[in-house]
Amino acid sequence: MNKNALITGITGQDGAYLAKLLLDKGYTVYGLMARRGSDGLWRLRELGVENEVSLIDGDLMDVTSLIRAMETSKASEVYNLGAQSFVGTSWTQPVLTAQVTGVGAVNVLEAVRIVNPEARFYQASTSEMFGLIQAERQDESTPFYPRSPYGVAKLMAHWATVNYRESFGLHASSGILFNHESPLRGPEFVTRKVALAVARIKLGLQKELRLGNIDAKRDWGFAGDYVEAMWAMLQQEQADDYVIATGVTTTVRDMCEIAFSHVGLNYKDHVVIDPEFFRPAEVDVLLGNPGKAERKLGWKPHTSLNELIAMMVDADMRRLGGAPE
Ligand code: NAP
Ligand code: GDD
């Protein structure tokens, strides 16, 4: 097998796991890399694939760079994972979020259509599109009701993917992924914020952890499991949309309990509620039904929330020089 893949967002959490998965399958992997001042390669380095991927200079907001990336990579599979992906920031930078997360996806679709319409396309859609949920368990037929500028931008990208499939016959699929986490998660997201704080508190480096709405519920899975679903979608004869989730929902509060008790601490002794971390509009609860993915892709999650949180706390203990539990 000798296939070329192009990943936007290769320096992010999912980009790193997907790059590793595709390399292990024998792909030649290209990644779009936006110019940044800081070291963006730490995740690829942690997975040991920093030198195995070819990086192409480009930005989702510059369609010419995407056309060039398609030409250079000769990709037959394109995974659009790049985004301004932090929901909180989408209220303070709504226009940038719309441009990168929404219009950026249209730019990638255009580059695919212009350079190689035979290439298969994956869009990183999100459970955040369900927002104010319209069904207790969300699946592919649940109506959307986004609650953040991020959710709104992702909805545009999602419908653009459906539209390019229907208008131009592109093999364009959308994975509606529920929250997925890992030791490579950005520190602004709540599971990693908690894991890092637990490790620091255990090692005596900090005392308290300030959080917002800990009654919110999320359907959390492991990113390493979820990238397998992305790949599986592009191997199907027909492009389609799939919900990827665990089917279990947990409060932020209970996730804290799991994380602190993993190192023998009680979250109630350390968590402080801080209004700064509440959002202008909240997604109170998400709970996905991954039945279609299981039936059609043969996909199932393999990692429980307890295993996931333990893995994340242990990784942060190790990074800080402490022994994992
Ligand atoms: P992430 O860690 O935040 O990664 C986002 C990636 O996008 C980074 O590589 C980032 O590069 C890149 N990027 C940002 N702005 C860009 C621009 N203007 N041009 C090119 N690249 C740009 O996100 P993730 O957790 O891996 O998620 C991957 C995708 O899945 C995202 O689209 C996210 O919205 C979506 N999603 C995530 C989840 C989840 O729970 N993780 C669930 C559903 C959907 P820099 O680091 O250099 O900025
Ligand atoms: N980040 C953060 N920080 N969230 C907090 C905090 C805090 O201090 N305190 C409570 N929360 C709550 C948020 O209000 C939210 O209800 C929940 O924890 C999860 O927040 P995040 O981890 O930031 O994730 P998210 O659900 O908003 O968004 C993530 O999942 C989406 C899929 O549903 C991101 O990865 C998105 O890119 C992704 O699309």
Quickly name the level 1 CATH class of the largest domain. Answer: Alpha Beta
Whole-angstrom Rg = 19 Å
Number of strands: 13
Approximate helicity band: 40-55%
CATH superfamily of the largest domain: NAD(P)-binding Rossmann-like Domain
Question: Which CATH architecture of the largest domain is right?
Answer: 3-Layer(aba) Sandwich
Distance between the termini: 41 Å
What number of structural domains do the residues give? Answer: 2
Strand order of the largest sheet: 3-2-1-4-5-6-11
Which ligands accompany this protein? NADP nicotinamide-adenine-dinucleotide phosphate, guanosine-5'-diphosphate-alpha-D-mannose
User: Would you list the SSEs in sequence order as H and E?
Assistant: EHEHEHEHHEHEEHEEEHEEHEHH
Structural class: alpha/beta
Number of helical segments with 4 or more residues? 11
Strand-residue proportion: 15-25%
Overall, the morphology is globular
**Whole-number mean pLDDT:** 97
- Unreliable stretches covering 5 or more consecutive residues: none
**CATH fold title of the largest domain:** Rossmann fold
Largest sheet: 7 strands, parallel
